């Protein structure tokens, strides 16, 4: 127990120190974790910590990440991606594996080893690349999308690779294969050495049947079981129950996949896709995300810690040469694909550089190949270093991309700036009388919205009418994060609790000043508070309707409708002017009646209003009295005399 | 019987003496449709389909408005922009208004002498109305000489307003009863209460 706590403390402390420094230096969190791991390595080996075992455990972070990736990906989108998935992904894996195999053959390796090495090194690092892409906000770019397609294909391709590799082993050594297959098919799961695979010893058709049944079960659970489950849990209204249930779901699916010998990452990805349309999507995201982050952090640190520096320094040139060779080759294949698939400018370099490393699946496959006697241990150790080093260099490549390739293409990309942003993301907090209307109007105009509301029953009703709304308390920062507040163009606060609105405005102004916030104000005084909190787009919830009611009253009293409209406009204008003046003077720290400037201005405002009403003051000239007043007869007379003096 | 549609527009209806009196009288004329556009669309949210259907149900279109800054009130422009759509009023296959007639009833503050190359307005009144005239042309609608009142600010004072209002009623009735002599009118730049070419009832 003590040693567990010590290990946990060491990892957390190393991460907490190294990552902020790395981020500050613009290196990104992944490199920070890797460096922390390298520093931690000697300490861990002195303490006798089982880093490899820890890495297997931490690989569960990849499973969680793919679940989250799935959540972001609706089935419709996945279907749209099928061309790129198979084209880009398939060609990348086949091309890279083939070329590396060729290189290995050239260096005199037998073809079985060459093929195994090619397969191992063809894979890229889902963990590093996806983490970095989303950290840098590149996920939605053309290069990001293409990278994602390739990574997804690779994750799926691991399964047939695991089936293929044992066949490459020397025939007399296949006795070990079954044992090894079981170990490897655990994929990223941690089985603690207990065999969970129920397909072992079943005939082929039964295995296929069980596998299909498991996939159907995942889709079934995602589609029909989660909603009642979460509604049931929502009744208790306890935050941690949601977290527990979300973890249960992910672990359960990973377990089920392990039992039938499928990749747990693939299974949870599938579950994520199924749940992408669910109203609990953002809640699930915000619950799982911290675990994913921590586990991946530990995973990256173990990668750093496992770098065998003795071996590296003894064969420094060879290993470094191999690493650069592999990365160059991968980048070349990617670049060619980028040309074939018509990626442009910065996207092409992002795609080529971002995926040039080998990945964490490489570790899995390497231990698998060794266990299957496909690769000699010495070679595998060197390849392990190549994989780790290439991952270590990846953040550097992203920095290279940002400093060198991205700026060069800024001009080309900013040309489209005056078009309406199709990807503009609008988040609406609260789906009541206010949020509902806002959402309807935005969607009617073709804008994508994400609506958050935390009444489970109301959501059920809204969903049944085909509205896209998500469960969750919009005042919770982590849920806002999950809903994508970082990339949001616009955040509309339409909840009805005065204090919560003010709190949200404060939070947004402090953390996301780049996001435009439209806030609902309950009354005049609330406007001042929101203004002081930094919001400049404040809408009084009942003002417009009251002005309209007054306008209706004027019409009913016999005013010409256009005249009534002019007076309503005039009233609104001067009211807003006074409100803005007063809001500027209002100080939340001083009670309004002790704020001298505020009191003086509001007295003046009252007098102005009275003067305007009695028609005495010209100061706030009334719009209604200014338009369309004809010239006087005297004006005309003067004009005529001035223009024709000669005739007189 | 011709179906007459009168579209009246005055954003300063409250300040108006001439146009208000004209429109009040026009509303009393039986068998024509008289619409106050600013009352119908105080927020400029013109319902295009309704307006087009109304146009198709009439034979003669009369716009009544005061000239302000040598042009029509902005709602008239908005109405033209929106209602006279391509494919409906003009352009290939846009012949739905062809053969209907357009006439203006306008008031000008200056005296008639001001509207000439020698007067302070420099141009004749018709040249300020040429955009409307060409609009009618493009829609294949014959454009009738406008019913004009000059010196409109003086009119309420010197009794010409009463005559102008009475003439307006006679004009609308004659258009309605097919007794307006379009040919005779065409020889005039504009018509007034004492030059209205109305045929005697046959």
Features:
heterodimer, A: 648 residues, mainly alpha, six-stranded parallel beta sheet, 29 helices, 4% strand, B: 202 residues, alpha/beta, five-stranded parallel beta sheet, 13% strand
How would you characterize this protein structure?
The complex is a heterodimer of chains A (648) and B (202). Chain A has 648 residues and is mainly alpha-helical. Chain A has 29 helices and six strands. Chain A has a six-stranded parallel beta sheet with strand order 3-2-1-4-5-6, with helices on both faces. Residues 172-194, 410-421 and 616-621 of chain A have low confidence and may be disordered. Chain B has helices at residues 18-27, 37-40, 48-56, 74-83, 125-128, 130-138, 160-176, 182-186, and strands at residues 4-8, 32-36, 60-66, 101-107, 147-149. In chain B, strands 2-1-3-4-5 form a five-stranded parallel beta sheet. In chain B, α4 links the parallel β3 (60-66) and β4. The two termini of chain B are 14 Å apart. The mean pLDDT of chain B is 94. Classes of the chains: A mainly alpha (648), B alpha/beta (202).
Describe the global form of chain A.
elongated
Task: Note the total helix count of chain B.
Answer: 8
Shape of chain B: globular
Give the averaged pLDDT of chain A, no decimals. Answer: 79
The proportion of strand residues of chain B reads 5-15%
Return the structural class of chain A: mainly alpha
Order of helices and strands of chain B: EHEHHEHEHHEHH
Oligomer: heterodimer
Number of strands of chain B: 5
- Helix percentage range of chain A: 55-70%
Main β-sheet of chain B: number of strands, strand sense, barrel status? 5 strands, parallel
Lateral arrangement of strands in the main beta sheet of chain A? 3-2-1-4-5-6
Number of helices of chain A: 29
Strand percentage of chain A: under 5%
């Amino acid at each position: 127990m003590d040693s567990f706590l010590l290990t946990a403390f060491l990892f957390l402390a190393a991460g907490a120190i190294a990552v902020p420094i790395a981020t500050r230096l613009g290196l990104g969190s992944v490199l920070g974790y890797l460096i922390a791991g390298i520093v931690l390595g000697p300490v861990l080996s002195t303490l006798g910590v089982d880093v490899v075992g820890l890495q297997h455990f931490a690989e569960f972070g990849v499973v969680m990440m793919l679940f989250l990736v799935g959540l972001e990906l609706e089935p419709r989108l996945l279907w749209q991606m099928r061309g790129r998935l198979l084209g880009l992904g398939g060609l990348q894996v086949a091309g890279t594996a083939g070329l590396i195999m060729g290189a290995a053959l050239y260096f005199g390796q037998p073809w079985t080893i060459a093929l195994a090495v090619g397969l191992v090194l063809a894979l890229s690092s889902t963990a590093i690349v996806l983490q970095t892409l989303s950290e840098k906000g590149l996920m939605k770019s053309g290069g990001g999308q293409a990278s994602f397609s390739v990574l997804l294909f690779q994750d799926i391709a691991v399964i047939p690779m695991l089936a293929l590799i044992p066949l490459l082993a020397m025939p007399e050594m296949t006795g070990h294969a079954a044992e090894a297959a079981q170990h490897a098919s655990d994929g990223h799961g941690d089985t603690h050495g207990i065999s969970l695979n129920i397909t072992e010893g079943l005939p082929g058709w039964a295995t296929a049947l069980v596998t299909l049944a498991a996939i159907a079960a995942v889709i079934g659970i995602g589609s029909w079981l989660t909603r009642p489950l979460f509604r049931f849990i929502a009744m208790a209204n306890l935050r941690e129950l949601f977290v527990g249930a979300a973890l249960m779901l992910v672990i359960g699916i990973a377990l089920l996949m392990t039992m039938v010998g499928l990749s747990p990452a693939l299974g949870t990805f599938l579950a994520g896709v199924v749940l992408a349309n669910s109203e609990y999507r953002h809640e699930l995201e915000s619950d799982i995300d911290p675990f994913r982050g921590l586990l991946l952090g530990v995973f990256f640190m173990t990668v750093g810690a496992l770098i065998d520096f003795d071996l590296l320094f003894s064969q420094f040139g060879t290993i470094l040469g191999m690493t650069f060779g592999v990365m160059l080759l991968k980048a070349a294949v990617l670049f060619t694909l980028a040309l074939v698939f018509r990626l442009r400018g910065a996207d092409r370099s992002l795609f080529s550089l971002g995926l040039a490393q080998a990945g964490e699946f490489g570790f899995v496959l390497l231990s698998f190949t060794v266990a299957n006697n496909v690769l000699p241990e010495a070679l595998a150790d060197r390849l392990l270093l190549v994989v780790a080093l290439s991952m270590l260099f990846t953040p550097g490549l992203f920095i290279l991309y940002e400093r060198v390739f991205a700026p060069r293409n800024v001009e080309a990309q900013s040309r489209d700036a005056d078009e309406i942003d199709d990807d503009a993301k609008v988040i609406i907090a609260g789906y009541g009388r206010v949020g509902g209307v806002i959402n309807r109007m935005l969607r009617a105009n073709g804008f994508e919205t994400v609506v958050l509301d935390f009444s489970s029953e109301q959501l059920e009703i809204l969903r049944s009418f085909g509205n896209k709304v998500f469960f969750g308390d919009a005042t919770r920062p982590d849920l806002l994060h999950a809903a994508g507040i970082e990339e949001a163009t616009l955040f509309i606060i339409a909840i009805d609790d005065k204090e919560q609105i003010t709190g949200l405005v404060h939070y947004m102004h402090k953390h996301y000043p780049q996001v435009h916030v439209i806030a609902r104000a309950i009354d005049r005084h609330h406007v001042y508070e929101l203004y002081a909190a930094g919001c400049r787009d404040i809408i009084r919830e009942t003002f417009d309707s009251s002005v309209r009611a007054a306008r209706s009253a004027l019409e009913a009293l016999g005013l010409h409708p256009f005249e009534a409209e002019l007076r309503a406009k005039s009233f609104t204008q001067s009211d807003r002017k006074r409100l803005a003046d007063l809001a500027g003077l209002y100080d939340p720290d001083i009670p309004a009646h002790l704020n001298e400037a505020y009191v003086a201005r509001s007295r003046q405002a009252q007098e102005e209003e009275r003067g305007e009403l009695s028609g005495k003051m010209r100061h706030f000239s009334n719009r209604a009295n200014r338009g369309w007043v004809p010239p006087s007869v005297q004006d005309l007379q003067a004009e005529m005399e001035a223009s024709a003096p000669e005739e007189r | 019987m011709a179906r007459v549609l009168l579209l009246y527009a005055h954003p300063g209806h409250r300040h108006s003496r001439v146009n208000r009196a004209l429109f009040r009288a026009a509303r009393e004329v039986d068998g024509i449709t008289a619409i106050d556009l600013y009352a119908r669309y105080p927020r400029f949210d013109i319902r295009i389909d309704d307006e087009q259907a109304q146009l198709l149900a009439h034979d003669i279109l009369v716009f009544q408005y005061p000239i302000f800054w040598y042009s029509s009130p902005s709602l008239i422009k908005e109405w033209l922009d929106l209602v006279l759509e391509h494919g409906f009023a003009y352009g290939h296959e846009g012949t739905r208004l062809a053969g209907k007639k357009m006439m203006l009833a306008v008031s000008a503050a200056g005296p008639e002498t001001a509207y000439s190359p020698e007067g302070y307005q420099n141009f004749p009144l018709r040249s300020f109305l040429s955009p409307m005239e060409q609009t009618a042309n493009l829609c294949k609608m014959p454009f009738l000489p406008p019913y004009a009142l000059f010196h409109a600010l003086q009119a309420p004072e010197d009794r010409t307003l009463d005559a102008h209002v009475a003439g307006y009623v006679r004009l609308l009735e004659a258009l309605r009863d097919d007794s307006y002599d379009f040919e005779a009118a065409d020889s005039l730049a504009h018509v007034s209460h004492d030059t209205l070419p109305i045929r005697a009832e046959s």
